[in-house]
Amino acid sequence: VAPADGPLPPVTSENLLVFFKRYDPRSHMTQYLGKSYPLRAITLAQLLPQLQEMAGWHGVPLSFYLESGPTQLTALSPEVPLAALLEENGMTVIMEPTPAPGAQTVLEYYRQMANKATVVFRDLTRPKVDAFTLELPRSLPCPEVVVACAEQLKAPPERVQLWRHRFWGECAMESPVPTTCHETLGMLTVQSSIPSNILYFKITDRPVVEYEQLLTFRLPFYNRYHQLVKIFDVTVPAPSTIGDLLAELKRRILLEPVTPCPTPVPTPTPTPTPTPTPTPTP
Question: What is the DSSP letter of 195?
Fold first, then answer.
């Protein structure tokens, strides 16, 4: 983005082109101030009065940082010549006043910006539709991600369940994220070293911990003619046996009687018409 304070003049071998920003610890914002063409041998300490006036902080001690990337800062010594601090022309120096105790410094601000992620949440029943987005730290533990999602849904956190995103199917993974998960948001949104920003949610009718103590089996019911009549989803406690599963299936069948299929009537086989044998001529 070109600065708004005029065109850039040619840079000679004796000076440097430097852009300046300031960080305000009260508003937690950075602001572009302008550009300067200091000599290569000059130091930031010699430029201090000019920079204080540029930032509007007269007589305030300043700290300086080199913006070497969108979220990377390097501390600069004000007593070292600029030629030794800046590798090339057009680099950006950020200045900040001495922060008050407990105030966020510019290093913490850039670290927070690098750690922030925009996460898209989708309803499990509508996996192709974005429900809402949240800006959350990548280092946020999984239980706190659930709490943030529950606050957006206005639902109890203990009844909100999350699923990871499956890249190759553009849908949710088969297994939900367990309540005992100790991963961070950054780990939840990475699969096979591929980053993602999608999570799926579901509001359950009971606490998720109770669901995790249950097992659900999908049992298809066939009649004697090998025709599929109905599919039962039978839920039993995790320590149950096969006998418990069959007993629960029997109870479900008694509660939801299966309508028997009509007995197929066999199609009669047509009797072939005999072909008349020709009478030999004497």
Answer: E
pTM score over 0.90: no
pLDDT at 272 over 70: no
- Asked whether 23 and 109 are in contact (CB, 8 A), the reply is yes
CA dihedral of residues 243, 247, 248, 254 (deg, nearest 10): 160
Write down the residue that tokens 């540029």 correspond to. Answer: 54
In this prediction, residues 195-215 reach a mean pLDDT of 89
What tokens does 105 get? 């410094």
Give the Cα separation of 147 and 203 in Å (integer): 12
CA angle 49, 53, 56 (to 5 degrees): 135
CA distances from 142 to 159, 178, 192, 196, 208 (A): 14, 9, 19, 16, 14
Which run of H or of E encompasses 66? Answer: strand 62-69
Beta strand pairing call for 198-203 and 116-123: parallel
Per-residue pLDDT of 208-218, as tens digits, reads 998 888 888 88
Sign for the pseudo-dihedral over CA of 109, 111, 115, 118 = positive
**Cα 201 from Cα 205, distance rounded (Å):** 13
Q: What tokens appear for 152 in the block?
A: 């957006």
> What gap in Å lies between CA 272 and CA 106, rounded to an integer?
97
Residue-wise pLDDT for 37-93, tens only, equals 888 888 999 999 988 888 888 888 898 999 877 778 888 888 988 888 887 777 889
Distances (CA, A) of 38 to 11, 62, 67: 10, 18, 18
Residue 254 to residues 210, 229, 258: CA-CA distances in angstroms? 26, 15, 8
